[in-house]
Amino acid sequence: MSPKQMCGVERAVELIGSKWVLLILHNLCTTTRGFNELLRLVEGISPRILSLRLKDLVDHGLVHKEILPTTPPQVQYSLTPKGESLKSIIESLATWGETV
Length: 100
Prior knowledge:
This protein is α+β, with helices and mostly antiparallel strands. It has a single domain, classed as Orthogonal Bundle (Arc Repressor Mutant, subunit A). The protein has helices at residues 8-16, 21-28, 35-41, 47-59, 81-84, 87-99, and strands at 33-34, 63-68, 74-79. A 3-stranded antiparallel sheet has the order 1-3-2. The longest helix has 13 residues, at 47-59.
């Protein structure tokens, strides 16, 4: 099914429904973070899976990846405007999760 044929919920699940994605986005809601910082913050995720999820988020335009000109090169991740539009949803999920 093409993205145009999906309902909104199906499209949202396709973009952010993979395991770990909401936790990654949640940790990017407040500030730019490096790969190792995200690895520490998202407890239980492996480096390989974090790398794959971040690549998907970058490919979908939700996260911006910046390679800093340092030695060794450092990578910083931040939300794009499209990713920023998820902040209120993530905050609502966090609030809901605290009440159940």
